[in-house]
Amino acid sequence: MSGHHVTTTINGDSVEFVCEPQESLLDVLRNHLGLTGAKEGCGTGDCGACSIELDGRLVCSCLVLGAEAEGRKIRTIEGMAKGDKLHPLQKKFLEHAALQCGICTPGFLVAARALLERTPNPTETQVRYWLAGNLCRCTGYDKIVRAVLATAVEMKQEKRHAA
Amino acid sequence: MQFEAPETVGAAVKLLAKASGTTRMLAGGTDVLVQLRSGTVEPKLIVDLKRIAELGKIAPEKGGFRVGATVPAAAIGENVKVRKMWPGVVEAANLIGSTQIQGRATLAGNLCNGSPAADSVPALIAASAVALIAGPKGRRKVPVEKIIVGPGKTSLKKGEIVTGIVLPARPARTGDAYLRFIPRSEMDIAVVGVGVCLTLDAKGVCTAARVSLGAVAPTPLLVKAAADALIGTKVDAAALAKMAKAASAACNPIDDKRGTKEFRVKVAGVLARRAAEKALKRARGN
After folding, report:
1. I need a labelling partner for A154 at 20 to 30 A (CA). Which of A33, A48, B170, B259 fits?
2. What range defines the domain where residue B200 resides?
3. How far is CA A16 from CA A12, A24, A158, B2, in A?
4. Do the chains contact at A67 and B187, CB–CB below 8 Å?
């Protein structure tokens, strides 16, 4: 088996790796690149714990081959906080206690960021449908949905202050 | 396993045609990667189609659209023109899986995976969609209803690729709709799916209709008897009842934990009537 040499961009940085043809992008992120924020829940695209953005689309990294990443732009949870400064979603998840064990949290955060970047003022229904592919087995969904809605309000206020 | 990502249709066909053993094409990969992981399929060769530029676009085609084989369902939903012309097809495509799956899953992939329960397929059949195929012997066009021949099986020959799906120009006073039954509100596989497309004349009489059922037989079905029950009528309650009965009669479903045979047969009729009512409303508005 010959390895594939892949050059890609992750959170704005150029990254190179070698992977086997059958390796998923999730395995590459976690096992080759040390980016262990994306989690493996089901490995079949049902739980959303491995959510990342690939060329601006929210996807499950377990359903992408590492070799497919050549020349693409990837965003993972690791790029969400800027140094010590948490993303507003991360702050609100803490304030609302929108997590317990935390395994699903990176996926929820990446998915919620993708929602708010497209739909800055989502309704509760929009949040629930958008996040239907992210499963949480301990906190439940109410706190998560409330945290996302509260973030939308705060980001809107911040934008108004900045303007 | 060998992974290739050619940049032209010709190169992809060549790779697939000369390959020995099992091959898989990668459009969205939402089914193929699950098969790889579970070991149900061990391909010798995987050909990623996403580097082929022409396959990644939605382009105008004779008053309709050509949806490239690698266009994700999310992009179809974002296309205002496609949504306006074929809302039933778009609704069906956007029912497949979660936001994450929508970012990858494709119409061509949903079709070629060959599932009897594929959501987009009955809607495509109702809309008279055509699969564009490229292969070692050149290109051909095949109506979508001729592609799936059994669960997981298609009529494609070795080396052939579905490069896109053509949604034809929508005739005047035509509307389509897709409805499915699942036991929950989101994220499930159809227990029954129904696509309906119908055309009215200026007086409101139905002049053409297509009714397609999913998840009630080994393949999605195009039910002529159901369409015939509508044609020549004003799609009134009697015609709809007759159509529902014909839809139920065409079912040959499995019996499983998600729906008994009797349930699927009954629901197929109910959903066919509701989908026809929805398509009728749209046809009157067009």
Report:
1. A48
2. 174-285
3. 13, 15, 37, 20
4. no
Helix, strand, or coil (residue B175): strand
Percent of chain A with pLDDT over 90: 93
pLDDT at residue A147 is higher than 90:
yes
Is the pLDDT score of B30 beyond 90? yes
Please give the Cα distance from B222 to B240 (Å, whole number): 17
Interface probe, candidates A5, A53, A61, A68, chain B, greatest B C-beta count within 10 A: A68
Give the pLDDT of residue A102.
96
Residue among A95, A94, A106 at smallest CA distance from A60? A106
Domain count of the fold of chain B: 2
pLDDT mean over B78-97: 98
pTM, 2 dp: 0.97
Element (H, E) at B166: strand B161-167
* Mean pLDDT, rounded, for B127-154: 98
Domains and CATH numbers, chain A: 4-79 (3.10.20.30), 88-162 (1.10.150.120)
Q: Which of A23, A50, A54, A65 to mutate to test the interface with B (most CBs of B within 10 A)?
A: A65
CATH of the domain at B246: 3.30.390.50
